[in-house]
């Protein structure tokens, strides 16, 4: 077991977090680093440069997932993995994703600086398109890697401008030669901000993440009829936006039926050919629900399409609903969770067990590799917001736990 006298460098960590946040910086202090854009390309290049300074070998797979490897002493040992994502929401914060990647870099730097040769190799991963805000599926890179989505299908997904994933990868030179599929690994650890208020509210420094909640996502299209706003009487209207509004109210109602555990969101909506004096003839929107229990999400997945269709049909505007994915509750590996808990205790941090409300690449990695996550608090529980904020000491504590967990596993 490693001692706790070996420490990561909190200032170096923070400086690199701020250096990454310069790439795609927004006027309000956040980050816009949408997946597979020129800004993402710059982020990837900076990350690669930092890795190569440490003599890490960087390989890239067909989905643009980046793997930076540090060899261990024992060539027969499977690698210990860590990572997260450098892409952001359209108006995201500095830390969602970037913390886990830059913390992993700080772990690599510390191993390098202290001349520590681990028994097992260690790999640091930057997953492509964790956020899903451009191509519609979150956890895209890790999802293809894990075999959840066929690569050919993912290559064909397009953004709102019709640019496919395959073309976007090619355009920024992010498509690598290695196949995007699981390889044998000993463990995966992902550090992330909590993105919710629990740790801050309870004054805990570290969250020991035991699993992630279930979710289901759809694309919805309501088709009515464009018509003149001034001449079309109520009896002749086929107002697609009115239907969408009623379905949004249904999402809220179904969420609230699950009390404090329910989540239901329509976060994106487009009125096609919108004009203030046209009755909307076509509306497109996203729908997602989340809940800690798979059974609750399965019940919603069974009931929502029917209830939404009834609303649409009653308004004479048919609904086309496409389920994008249903993710069951994903428990993390008790052994890896135990390593995180022990590392936090050895370091003297206050902790609490927590279930992740957000999706993370760790959810898909956990299907083939023993996995755990570490959470740090974030200010006012705010995330997917430019005002997302954490303290340097919080980043340092989470990274210290990541370092100790990786070291314990790689030298066991
Ligand atoms: C990813 O950011 C999610 O929606 O949980
Ligand atoms: Mn994230
Ligand atoms: Mn996010
Ligand atoms: Mn996320």
From TrEMBL:
<feature type="domain" description="Peptidase M20 dimerisation">
    <location>
        <begin position="216"/>
        <end position="311"/>
    </location>
</feature>
<feature type="binding site">
    <location>
        <position position="96"/>
    </location>
    <ligand>
        <name>Zn(2+) 1</name>
    </ligand>
</feature>
<dbReference type="InterPro" id="IPR002933">
    <property type="entry name" value="Peptidase_M20"/>
</dbReference>
<dbReference type="InterPro" id="IPR010158">
    <property type="entry name" value="Amidase_Cbmase"/>
</dbReference>
<feature type="binding site">
    <location>
        <position position="85"/>
    </location>
    <ligand>
        <name>Zn(2+) 1</name>
    </ligand>
</feature>
<dbReference type="InterPro" id="IPR011650">
    <property type="entry name" value="Peptidase_M20_dimer"/>
</dbReference>
<dbReference type="GO" id="GO:0016813">
    <property type="term" value="F:hydrolase activity, acting on carbon-nitrogen (but not peptide) bonds, in linear amidines"/>
</dbReference>
<feature type="binding site">
    <location>
        <position position="96"/>
    </location>
    <ligand>
        <name>Zn(2+) 2</name>
    </ligand>
</feature>
<keyword id="KW-0862">Zinc</keyword>
<dbReference type="Pfam" id="PF01546">
    <property type="entry name" value="Peptidase_M20"/>
</dbReference>
<feature type="binding site">
    <location>
        <position position="192"/>
    </location>
    <ligand>
        <name>Zn(2+) 1</name>
    </ligand>
</feature>
<feature type="binding site">
    <location>
        <position position="384"/>
    </location>
    <ligand>
        <name>Zn(2+) 2</name>
    </ligand>
</feature>
<keyword id="KW-0479">Metal-binding</keyword>
<comment type="similarity">
    <text>Belongs to the peptidase M20 family.</text>
</comment>
<dbReference type="Pfam" id="PF07687">
    <property type="entry name" value="M20_dimer"/>
</dbReference>
<keyword id="KW-0378">Hydrolase</keyword>
<protein>
    <submittedName>
        <fullName>Zn-dependent hydrolase</fullName>
    </submittedName>
</protein>
<dbReference type="InterPro" id="IPR036264">
    <property type="entry name" value="Bact_exopeptidase_dim_dom"/>
</dbReference>
<feature type="binding site">
    <location>
        <position position="131"/>
    </location>
    <ligand>
        <name>Zn(2+) 2</name>
    </ligand>
</feature>
<dbReference type="GO" id="GO:0046872">
    <property type="term" value="F:metal ion binding"/>
</dbReference>
């Amino acid at each position: 077991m490693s001692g706790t006298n070996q420490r990561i460098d909190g200032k170096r960590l923070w400086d690199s977090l701020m250096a990454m946040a310069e790439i795609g910086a927004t006027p309000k202090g956040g980050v816009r680093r949408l997946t597979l854009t020129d800004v993402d390309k710059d982020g990837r290049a900076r990350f690669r440069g930092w890795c190569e300074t440490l003599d890490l070998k960087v390989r890239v797979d067909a989905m643009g997932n980046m793997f930076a490897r540090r060899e261990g002493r024992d060539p027969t040992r499977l690698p210990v993995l860590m990572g997260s994502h450098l892409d952001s929401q359209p108006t995201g914060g500095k830390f969602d994703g970037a913390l886990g990647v830059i913390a992993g870099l700080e772990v690599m730097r510390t191993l390098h600086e202290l001349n520590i040769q681990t028994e097992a190799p260690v790999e640091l991963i930057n997953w492509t398109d964790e956020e899903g805000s451009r191509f519609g599926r979150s956890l895209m890179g890790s999802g293809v890697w894990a075999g959840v989505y066929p690569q050919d299908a993912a290559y064909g997904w397009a953004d709102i401008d019709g640019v496919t994933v395959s073309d976007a990868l090619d355009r920024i030179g992010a498509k690598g030669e290695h196949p995007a599929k699981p390889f044998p690994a000993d463990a995966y650890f992902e550090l992330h901000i909590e993105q919710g208020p629990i740790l801050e509210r309870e004054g805990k420094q570290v969250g020991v993440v035991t699993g992630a909640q279930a979710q289901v996502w759809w694309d919805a299209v309501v088709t009515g009829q464009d018509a003149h706003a001034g001449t079309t009487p109520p009896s002749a209207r086929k107002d697609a936006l009115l239907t969408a509004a009623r379905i949004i109210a249904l999402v809220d109602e179904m969420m609230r039926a699950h009390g404090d555990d329910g989540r239901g969101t329509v976060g994106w909506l487009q009125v096609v050919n919108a004009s203030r004096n046209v009755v909307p003839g076509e509306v497109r929107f996203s729908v997602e629900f989340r809940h800690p229990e798979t059974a609750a999400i399965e019940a919603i997945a069974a009931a929502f399409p029917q209830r939404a269709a009834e609303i649409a049909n009653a308004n004479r505007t048919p609904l086309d609903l496409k389920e994008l994915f249903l993710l069951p509750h994903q428990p993390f590996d008790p052994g890896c969770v135990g390593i995180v808990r022990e590392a936090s205790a050895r370091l003297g941090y206050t902790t609490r067990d927590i279930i992740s409300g957000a999706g993370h690449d760790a959810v898909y990695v956990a299907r083939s590799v023993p996995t755990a996550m570490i959470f740090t608090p974030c200010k006012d529980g705010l995330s997917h917001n430019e005002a997302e904020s954490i303290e340097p000491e919080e980043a340092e504590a989470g990274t210290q736990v990541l370092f100790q967990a990786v070291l314990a596993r790689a030298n066991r």
